[in-house]
TrEMBL record:
Record has Repeat as a keyword: yes
TPR repeat locations: 639-672, 673-706
Keyword presence, Signal: no
Pfam families in alphabetical order: TPR_8
Lineage: Eukaryota, Fungi, Dikarya, Ascomycota, Saccharomycotina
Organism the protein comes from: Maudiozyma barnettii
Database matches in Gene3D superfamilies: Tetratricopeptide repeat domain
Matching InterPro entries: TPR-like_helical_dom_sf (IPR011990), TPR_rpt (IPR019734), TTC27/Emw1 (IPR044244)
Assigned keywords, A-Z: Repeat, TPR repeat
Entry protein name: Similar to Saccharomyces cerevisiae YNL313C EMW1 Essential conserved protein with a role in maintaining cell wall integrity
């Protein structure tokens, strides 16, 4: 029963499922599901009737050590109630910092005995305790003691290595191991610990330290969900067990987003979509967007339908944040779409694309995309075609989360401010906001927030976007002294349960980050004063300094940071940013010495890699690699740092180091084509051609940008390994990429000659051709002739292949074109090599007339290739003699030309 209760709390079931269960643990679970974490905290501490004496504590380390000893003494034995207490502390912290409405209860006073006059001192101790690698936690954090005690309790309950006071000893870190057969309650405790660690990461500016590695280790394996589901009583319904796996996959995606490994998200998104049988597709439809449109124009739309509905939507969900009306004289509140099936197929202005067989099985939709896309109307599943695009049904809340998570994945893996990407994101947000019925408070408010961010990038919607952002910040009811937008009493008393229900599946965005994003938008619009006022109110001095530096006022930025490091000498991030502004290595060194702040080492590496001209410092690869190595020891999940590390190692000739670095890169992001290409380059220099070939195969597979260097390397390595199919593919791709700028210069002559030689040594059959023959013929006989302008060698290659194809008339035509190319070369009048080359081409053409002229022609029996071939041969020689007479009479080329004429 204990496991079942904890599982209900884990997946945030409705509290109704626990009616009639009369134990104290059930009471705790009910309180947590109702968003009443303060009742659990109060009851546990009242029963304990013990407080931690802080009167002799003089540092954050001492306070953490004392707290840990106290928790081990009083909480380690009873894992069930201790786990409720740890969860309640985390939920209390999240409600007061992330979701609102705030709870007014003195948790510190219930847990600690300390002089009242020193409360601010202990507040600073807790902030210091939550510091990660020189990055102090947000200094106006509410109830930091709740997060600290919760993290300590989860460490104790899971018997894990502490991450407090141990930041420098990362070499000794032991990652938690989730193994099949683990006790169900222990698995739940680990899961909650991962949630607490992500909350911890969200209170510092950037993810770093050991916390990301530990969170990733816990949430990287589905075994954690199996351990819980298998330990549940046999009578538990399968739908409930399926919900555990659904929640796991969603939080797996959230974890990857939080620790900047977003490229690992797609497999989990694909699995959870199948698990919930969620049907959705991105497609196009005609839409009216303004009040004066009579005819709809194409636009993007998400068609989505949930297979199941939420079992019991809370009535309080109806108290959602206000969705501000656009109130535009031009734009409609939302696009009005035409019916999906209204447009005839032959009027769809779209190029029919080739769909591979696997996609055709899915009606032309590629499911393995962040946004599955239907490029034609007939590819849309029938169940989605029947939806009314202007009034789509309410989605299951877990399906809504899937869409929201896809927004974050797209944003973190796409170029910023890309218009097409923003249209895709807008279509997702619109599907959530404009659906029938009421969505959950957290999901609806997050959708409004994402819409606001998109709308502040457009002149016609920026006003609504800023107003909506301001409203959402105030809606939390946290640390807001003055309100711009009136609030009703009903909103003020809004229940906390709907706000907390899905908070662990969404990326954590604390209240100050919402405010800071609003300030960032003000700054982007040039409203500097409002932005700085927000940063000042939030005490976000580093961000205020960066704000001034962004507008060119570096003196003011330096002044703010100088005051900051005086007030808080332990703020390593402030020292590092000041070093970035001044380009002063000593400040970066101090930042590293204070808190092992990884960006300080990264800045030092960039400084010594490309020193300023007036610094007197010379480039030193050894120093650069040393700094990057230090950075990666502290935070090994940074793709950008590994990539830079590998590039420097490759440039300095440290090939083993480069191989290791780029191997780590592709393990973090296997879709990064340049990382695969650079890994292959390190293998090539080590003469490991097979390894290089494998890497380049992966590189070209992910090369969406069509990088010619990658394809050229692939062609060269394939050539050296005699992988002729790949040589041909690479050669074709290179021509496709470079033909517009380089024309025939995009053709690699030695490679094409070798491909032609291999082609004509095979047996030709018009009916039965393998891949190499079919594509080789297409490339040499169709693609190359469309490129050639001045290269006679290419025409001769085409001629040889056409003759192999038993098309002598086409071969002779190529020889004629090769000769004309050389004849029209302006250099023939002034340069003897050009003259000799023309004589060679003339000789080849005459030989072609002789050998091909009498052969069977293209029209079958009775036709020949060239009836008057002798006349054409004589005319060719005669014309060339006329052209060279008086210029090249005494040259070897002239003598050969005379000999050719005499032999004819």
């Amino acid at each position: 029963m204990e496991l079942l209760l904890h599982t209900h709390v884990l997946v945030a079931s409705n509290a109704d499922v626990l009616k009639g269960v009369g134990s104290s643990e059930a009471t705790y679970a009910t309180h947590l599901l109702n968003g009443k974490s303060e009742l659990v905290i109060q009851d546990v501490l009242n029963q304990l009737n013990q407080r931690i004496d802080l009167s002799h504590v003089s540092s954050a380390d001492e306070m953490v050590s004392l707290t840990r000893s106290f928790l081990v003494t009083y909480f380690k034995e009873n894992i069930t109630s201790s786990l409720y207490f740890a969860i309640a502390l985390l939920q209390y912290f999240i409600q007061n910092n992330y979701t609102g409405p705030s709870i007014d209860m003195d948790v510190f006073g219930l847990l600690y005995a300390a002089p009242q006059d020193d409360s601010s001192k202990y507040q600073k101790y807790f902030i210091q305790a939550l510091t990660i690698l020189g990055q102090p936690a947000y200094e106006l954090l509410s109830n930091p003691e709740c997060l600290t005690v919760s993290l300590l309790l989860f460490e104790i309950l899971t018997d894990s290595q502490t991450l407090f006071n141990d930041q420098a000893k990362d070499d000794d870190l032991v990652l938690p191991e989730i193994v099949p057969g683990m006790d169900g309650l222990l698995a739940i405790a680990n899961w909650w610990r991962a949630r607490a660690l992500l909350a911890h990461l969200s209170v510092v500016p950037e993810p770093s330290g050991n916390q990301p590695s530990v969170a990733a280790a816990i949430m990287s394996t589905i075994d954690i969900a199996y351990c819980i589901s298998k330990a549940l009583p046999a009578e538990v319904e399968e739908d409930f067990k399926k919900k555990i796996f659904t929640i796991y996959y969603l939080e797996n995606v959230k974890t990857s987003l939080a620790i900047n490994t977003e490229h690992l998200c797609l497999p989990s998104l694909t699995k959870v979509k199948k698990l919930t049988d969620f049907k959705f597709v991105l497609t196009g439809a005609r839409a009216k967007r303004t009040k004066f449109q009579e005819i709809g124009h194409s636009g993007l739309i998400i068609l989505a339908h949930s297979s199941t509905q939420d079992e019991n939507n809370n009535a309080s969900d109806s108290n959602n944040p206000e969705n501000f009306v656009l109130e535009s004289d031009l734009l409609l509140e939302k696009p009005i779409f035409d019916s999906i099936g209204a447009e005839p197929l032959d009027e769809q202005i779209i190029k029919r694309q080739k769909i591979d067989p696997e996609s055709e099985e899915n009606n032309g939709i590629d499911e393995d995309r962040i946004l599955p896309m239907a490029i034609r109307q007939e590819y849309i599943p029938k169940s989605l075609q029947e939806l009314d695009p202007n009034e789509q049904p309410t989605l299951n809340n877990l399906d809504t989360i899937q869409l929201l998570l896809r927004i974050y994945v797209i944003r973190q893996t796409s170029p910023a401010r890309d218009p097409l990407v923003e249209e895709e994101l807008s279509s997702i947000v619109s599907r959530i906001i404009y659906q029938k019925g009421q969505a959950n408070w957290s999901l609806f408010s997050r959708s409004l927030w994402e819409r606001s961010i998109l709308e502040t990038n457009k002149a016609k919607t920026v006003e609504r976007g800023l107003l909506q952002m301001q409203s959402l910040v105030e809606e939390l009811g946290l640390m807001i002294q003055t309100r711009m937008i009136p609030q009703s009493q009903e909103e003020a008393n809004n229940s906390s349960a709907p706000r907390l229900k899905y908070i662990h599946q969404l990326p954590y965005i604390p209240r100050w980050e919402l405010d800071a994003k609003l300030a960032e938008k003000y700054m982007s619009l040039g409203v500097l004063r409002s932005a700085v006022e927000i940063y000042d109110r939030l005490h976000m001095w580093c961000e205020a300094a960066l704000c001034y530096a962004a507008v060119g006022d570096e003196k003011e930025a330096e002044k703010i940071l100088a005051n900051r490091v005086i007030d808080v000498p332990g703020d390593a991030r402030a020292y590092s940013i000041l070093g970035d502004i001044r380009q002063d290595p000593s400040l970066w060194e101090k930042s590293w010495a204070i808190g092992k702040y990884v960006n300080a080492k990264n800045s030092l590496a960039r400084y010594y890699y490309r020193p300023p001209k007036d610094s007197g410092v010379t480039q030193d690869f050894e120093i650069v690699l040393g700094h990057l190595n230090d950075s990666l020891r502290q935070y090994p999940l940074s793709f950008d740092t590994w990539y830079f590390y590998g590039c420097v190692a490759l440039e300095s000739g440290k090939l083993n180091v480069a191989s290791e670095a780029f191997s780590r890169c592709v393990s973090l992001d296997e879709t990064h084509s340049m990382a695969w290409s650079n890994l292959s380059a390190s293998y090539i220099q080590q003469d490991k051609l097979k390894e290089a070939y494998s890497c380049l195969k992966r590189a070209v597979g992910f090369d969406s940008q069509k990088n010619w260097r990658i394809w050229e390397n692939f062609m060269i390595v394939s050539f050296r390994l005699n992988e002729w199919n790949d040589v041909l593919t690479a050669c074709k791709q290179l021509v496709s990429i470079r033909r517009d700028k380089q024309g025939e210069g995009s053709v690699d002559m030695p490679v094409v000659e070798k491909l032609a030689e291999l082609l004509i040594t095979t047996d030709y059959s018009e009916e039965k051709q393998d891949y190499f023959q079919r594509n080789g013929i297409e490339f040499i006989c169709i693609t190359l002739p469309s490129l050639i302008t001045t290269n006679d060698r290419l025409w001769k290659i085409v001629a040889r292949v056409e003759l192999w194809r038993e098309r002598p008339w086409a071969s002779l035509d190529c020889h004629e074109k090769a000769y004309r190319v050389t004849l029209h070369n302006p250099a023939i009048d002034t340069e003897e090599p050009a003259w000799n080359n023309t004589v060679d081409a003339c000789e080849d053409l005459v030989a072609a007339y002789e050998s091909l002229g009498e052969r069977k022609g293209k029209y079958g029996e009775g036709s020949i290739v060239c009836k008057d071939w002798k006349y054409k041969a004589r005319s060719t020689i005669k014309a060339l003699i006329s052209k060279g007479k008086g210029r090249w009479d005494d040259t070897d080329g002239w003598e050969r030309l005379m000999e050719i004429r005499s032999q004819l």
